[in-house]
From TrEMBL:
Transmembrane residue ranges: 217-239, 246-268
Lineage: Eukaryota, Metazoa, Chordata, Craniata, Vertebrata
Listed GO biological process terms: fatty acid biosynthetic process
GO MF terms, alphabetically ordered: oxidoreductase activity, acting on paired donors, with oxidation of a pair of donors resulting in the reduction of molecular oxygen to two molecules of water
Keywords in alphabetical order: Fatty acid biosynthesis, Fatty acid metabolism, Lipid biosynthesis, Lipid metabolism, Membrane, Transmembrane, Transmembrane helix
Residue intervals of the Fatty acid desaturase domain: 133-377
Domain of life from the UniProt record: Eukaryota
Compositional bias annotation for Polar residues: 14-24
Pfam families given in the database record: FA_desaturase
Protein name according to UniProt: FADS6 desaturase
Organism name: Thinocorus orbignyianus
One GO term describing the cellular component: membrane
Chain intervals for the UniProt region annotation (Disordered): 1-78
Length: 408
């Protein structure tokens, strides 16, 4: 399986503030951050050393008589590329030694189990008793998010299969039929933009998750309930950007997925009115919408942001701008390891499945820490307190551009 390592923007040699974790400091755009600021709210993210150990400092290398010295930026770029190459080789060895079951089978089995749970969930909703009914809501809610979040995410990266043709089929199934979104736009916005320009202002800076006109409590606790309604509406708007054949296919898949859910609630679960069935659809589809929104902002916003023409190479960009949350049984199952506890690993090697991201996690974390690169980790509760406390700075105002300090 190929490991992605593209970096379309050149390095221009900048400086990094002495702290990765927490939030951007209140300062002018492009002004250097104060060093040594403690991480807010007890964040346990790794600090950036003022002098990263990337080999000898520039200018210390002996130059052979007659040899033309390399420009400082070019030499630094080569060292950074060498780091990513070395890490990729370590990960590639693990991937090649892993079985198909480890590379794809585990995650496919989770998705298959979710499908098998669907009949039980719909049948539980037939009960007039509270406990079986709530069990049905919980089952359908978890299954829905497993298929739409985990399934769609893996399909968008073609991480479910080695075949590109089957990868396209799974992307249409999980993204359009299950999630009521458009596969082309979802793949482009997530894979090409978010992964290609992680934490780059105006491109992959997660700004699509910001609604600055909402106050912190409405955004964090009430607005997520509208995700099942907003998702197809946004998809319909994005269909203007795709070919008419793809738009027609998307419309058909979206309608089929939503109608099948509605029909099963009426005929299998026994709902008597259309409104009660629609309300149940909204309830199950928004069951895990809160952690879905939270995870999308917790793991990038508040970390260093960069300008498109002044950003570090891939290994530094991903180690600086991505954060891992602790393992959680419910979210690991529904969202996948690559979105929760292995998000750093996923951004470094996005074509790997959730299970493989979990398998390479010790290698990646050890390598980054050995090279004195940041490996950001924090708890869900800590990030929630942080965003509630500094919501205006993080989610309303434009994030400041980080200046890299300490890369000598």
């Amino acid at each position: 399986m190929p490991l992605e390592d593209g970096d379309p923007v050149r390095w221009r040699g900048q400086q990094v503030n002495g702290e990765v974790s927490g939030t951007p400091h209140s300062r002018g755009m492009g002004d250097p951050s104060p060093r040594g600021t403690p991480a807010p709210n007890g964040s346990r993210t790794e600090k950036i050393a003022e002098g990263w150990e990337l080999g000898p400092a520039l200018g210390d290398r002996d130059v052979t008589p007659g040899e033309k010295p390399q420009p400082a930026g070019q030499e630094m770029g080569q060292r950074e590329e060498a780091l990513m190459t070395e890490l990729s080789e370590l990960v590639q060895k693990v991937v090649k030694s892993s079985s198909w079951w480890e590379r794809h089978g585990v995650d496919i089995s989770i998705l298959a189990c979710s499908f098998l749970l669907l009949p039980a969930g719909f049948l539980c909703l037939r009960s007039a008793q509270a406990i079986p009914f709530l069990a049905g809501v919980l089952t359908l809610g978890v299954v829905h998010h497993t298929l739409t979040v985990k399934g769609s995410h893996l399909a968008s990266h073609n991480a479910l299969t080695e075949s590109k043709s089957w990868g396209k089929v799974w992307a249409i199934f999980f993204i359009e039929l299950c999630s009521a979104f458009t596969a082309e736009q979802a793949t482009y916005n997530h894979v090409k933009i978010h992964h290609g320009y992680t934490n780059i202002i105006g491109l992959g800076d997660s700004s699509t998750w910001k609604l600055p006109f909402l106050n912190r409590y409405v955004y964090m606790f009430i607005a997520p309930l509208a995700v099942p309604i907003l998702t197809p509406l946004v998809a319909l708007d994005l269909l203007r950007n795709v070919e008419w054949k793809a738009a027609l296919r998307t419309l058909c898949c979206m309608f089929l997925g939503l109608y099948c859910h509605y029909w099963l609630l009426l005929h299998l679960s026994g709902f008597q009115s259309p409104w009660s069935a629609l309300l149940c659809m909204l309830l199950t589809r928004s069951l895990l919408a809160h952690p879905y929104i939270h995870v999308n902002i917790f793991q990038h916003i508040g970390l260093p942001m960069f300008a498109a023409d002044r950003k570090p190479k891939r290994i530094h960009l991903m180690s600086l701008g991505v954060l891992n949350l602790p393992r959680n049984a419910l979210l690991d199952w529904s969202f996948g390891h690559s979105l929760i506890s292995c998000h750093v690993e996923h951004h470094l090697f996005p074509s790997l499945s959730d299970n493989m991201c979990l398998k390479i996690k010790p290698i990646v974390s050890q390598y980054l820490k050995q090279k004195k690169l940041p490996y950001n980790e924090d708890t869900y509760a800590s990030r929630l307190r942080l965003f509630l406390h500094r919501y205006e700075e993080l989610m309303v105002h434009a994030p400041p551009i980080t200046e890299l300090v300490g890369i000598q």
